[in-house]
Amino acid sequence: MNELYQCVNKFNETAGDEVKKIGVFCKPKAPSATGTLSKLVPWLRERDYQVFLDTATATLINETSSQEKGEISQQADLLIVLGGNGTLLSVARTAHPHDVPILAVNLGSLGFLAEISLDELYPTLENILAGKFEVENRMLLNACIWRNGSKVEDHNVLNDVVINKGVVARVINLQVLVNGQYMTSYRADGLIIATPTGSTAYSLSAGGPIIHPSMHTLVLSPICPFTLTNRSILIPDQSIIQVKLVTEYDDVRITLDGQEGYDMKAEDILEIQKTKTTLQLIRGPKKNYYQILREKLHWGTQNEEGIAKK
């Protein structure tokens, strides 16, 4: 069986009977947020599903009962995320340890990850609750910052870890080791370490390749490198990457999934490796990865039927 779908049968065996508790998260500022929630939550409750809402989501429809994201992820059998990539990335960091499938619904943004449209929401839900769906297992990374021999930060990400200079208009120096072996030193504005999922985010803008989510690899993409031969490089996902800041500037930041930031000081070491758990994303109906790329990146005008006829 294709490893991309290795968890499909595992969840589908009991999906119809075992989904009783559903967590719902919504992007508060999305134009259609309130209207979508006002219809979705009653729809689920009418079918005897217990619905959990986080505080921001509950406020949109004047619900008085709410819970923290972590608590919801721990209790729920299914998570529904309404919004875009940012909303999903926020939920992913608390959901992945609990092996709970996520249905990501796009509320109008670019959304490579949130591939389900509002028009597809209820037909997709009907299939999910009947046990008819496919799950993709998406790789996550663990990122630790070591300072003077002590671990000062420890976080997981779905997309990428970015080391970036601040307002100082000078390049920073980064020394990179892979599995303890010296790879190179970058003089650049920064460095991106991305998963296949994150390859269509910041790394793509920095000249990195698009990587199919089933591939077992990571990509390192320098940001505006001083040496033009410093290009993106793919390495096996079993690798342990260590990045040491050898610049003495104080204004260097590490950003996780574009949402959380931490200071990186001279001689700090950023250590990155794949997590043991994955994120379970429910696939959209009759969609494949290449179709999503065409839709999101507006590739070409030739449709599948036209190609098939040639």
3D architecture notes:
The protein is α+β, with helices and mostly antiparallel strands. It folds into 2 domains: 3-138 and 278-309, Probable inorganic polyphosphate/atp-NAD kinase, domain 1 (Rossmann fold, 3-Layer(aba) Sandwich); 141-274, Probable inorganic polyphosphate/atp-NAD kinase, domain 2 (Tumour Suppressor Smad4, Sandwich), CATH 2.60.200.30. It contains 10 helices and 18 strands. Strands 7-6-17-14-9-10 form a 6-stranded antiparallel sheet. A 6-stranded antiparallel sheet has the order 13-12-11-8-15-16, with no helix packed on it. A 4-stranded parallel sheet has the order 2-1-3-4, sandwiched between helices. The longest helix is centred in the N-terminal third of the chain and has 14 residues, at 33-46.
- The radius of gyration is 21 Å
CATH class of the largest domain: Alpha Beta
Report the total helices.
Answer: 10
CATH architecture label of the largest domain: 3-Layer(aba) Sandwich
What's the count of strands?
18
Q: How would you state the average pLDDT, rounded?
A: 88
**Pairing-aware structural class of the strands and helices?**
alpha+beta
Q: What is the number of domains?
A: 2
- Provide the spatial order of strands within the biggest beta sheet: 7-6-17-14-9-10
User: What is the beta-strand fraction?
Assistant: 25-35%
CA-based shape:
elongated
Elements, N to C (H/E)? HHEHEHHEHEHEEEEEEEHEEEEEEEHH
Alpha-carbon distance between the termini? Answer: 31 Å
What name goes with the CATH superfamily of the largest domain? Probable inorganic polyphosphate/atp-NAD kinase, domain 1
What composes the largest sheet? Answer: 6 strands, antiparallel
CATH topology of the largest domain: Rossmann fold
Percent range for helical residues? 25-40%
